[in-house]
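debug: dumping io for the single-chain case to check the tokenizer round-trip. Nothing else runs in this session.
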Amino acid sequence: MVRHVVLFTWSEAADEQRRAKTVQALRRLRQDVGGMTSLLVENDADLSDGTADTVLIADFPDIEAYYRYAQDPVHLAVIAEHVRPFLKARTALQYVI
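debug: decoded output
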């Protein structure tokens, strides 16, 4: 099993309404792209300074499923439309569980 974790920090261009649309688009990836066994997309609880704004955690049954997701045209379109234009910083990692 592979876990994919992404931390997003949004730019000034991402107001609350924009952030909500982006989170909705990211949450739809499970049904629109598939291949994952679980998907969690949540906003930071704002308990301390210096944290990212949103986290995405997706589990995949194997490495091949992760690669199919990463290269899927729907996934890439969500990134191009809902993430990149509003992104200040992104950090990601994948690990085997």
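debug: round-trip ok. The chain has four helices and four strands.
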